[in-house]
Every structure is written in structure tokens, then in C-alpha cells.
Design brief:
Blueprint lengths: L18 E5 L5 E5 L1 H14 L7 E4 L6 E5 L14 E3 L9 E5 L8 E5 L10 H21 L1
Antiparallel strand pairs: 1-6, 2-4, 2-5, 3-4, 3-7
Length: 146
């Protein structure tokens, strides 16, 4: 269940209740990262953005994917490591839909990790890319030590 939020101009892609599938590239682009790695990226991004990173959706089942919701058309502007799966209209060979929960009520199996705000209706692509690159570098250092 999600708490209510004061978002004066609710983006059209957020459903009024439950969960809805939304086509990437039309309403937004998305980066998907699994589990603990996605959580580390979310923590770093939140810190870099002063506590308001923009919308991040969490799957509550399976691998615990996190979906970082970016403005439409922005995923293609960056290089992303393989663990950061890209979803947009420009992703070759992929037509993708991402589940988006309502801001309140029953939304299982999805929940908001971070809500969109009037100031941050989307995740800032440059900040997300920097957090993901830092996570990739951290992993390289960890692998070299072991």
C-alpha cells in the first residue's frame, strides 16, 4: 500500500487506482535494475538529488526489480552498463510495458520506492547514469579484491 501524496498535476501515466501497464517511450522511458544492486543505485541517486530522486517503482515479488522512470526519449542519450536494462521506443527489438502503481490504495505487486513530485516528475537521466556508472565501478573494484 502507498501513502497519498500532494501532486497537483498528476501525470497522466499514473493510474487512479491499482496498477496499469504503460508503454515505454510514449509516457516515459525506464531503466530496470534487479534487487540489491538496484537498491544501491536508488540510495546513491536519492543522496545525489537531495532526497527527491523522482519516480522509482519497486516490484515486490521475484527479483525485486526497480524501475527508474525517466522522461520519454532520454534513455538513448546515454551509455548504460548491461545490468541496467533500457526500455524506450528506441530500444531495438523491444516493445515494453512497465507496471505503474496508483499513488495510494492496493497496488500489490508494485509499490513506489520514491514518488514523483511536482519538482521531480521524472528521474534526472544524468544523475541516474552517474549513480549507475558508480555502481558498475564499485562492482569492478569488489571483483578485483576477491
Amino acid at each position: 500500500m502507498n501513502d497519498e501524496t500532494d501532486l497537483p498535476d498528476l501525470p497522466e501515466w499514473i493510474p487512479d487506482f491499482g496498477c496499469k501497464l504503460r508503454k515505454t517511450g510514449l509516457w516515459f522511458d525506464a531503466i530496470r535494475i534487479a534487487g540489491a544492486r538496484g537498491e544501491r543505485v536508488a540510495v546513491a541517486l536519492t543522496a545525489a538529488c537531495g532526497g527527491e530522486p523522482g519516480p522509482i517503482v519497486r516490484e515486490l515479488v521475484g527479483r525485486g526489480w526497480l524501475y527508474f522512470i525517466l522522461p520519454p526519449g532520454t534513455v538513448r542519450d546515454f551509455r548504460w552498463p548491461p545490468f541496467a536494462e533500457r526500455y524506450s521506443a528506441a530500444t531495438p527489438g523491444r516493445v515494453a510495458f512497465v507496471g505503474i502503481p496508483a499513488l495510494s490504495g492496493e497496488t500489490w505487486p508494485l509499490a513506489w520506492r520514491c514518488l514523483p513530485t511536482a519538482e521531480q516528475p521524472f528521474v534526472e537521466p544524468c544523475a541516474l547514469n552517474a549513480a549507475i556508472i558508480a555502481e558498475a565501478e564499485r562492482r569492478k573494484k569488489t571483483e578485483c579484491v576477491t
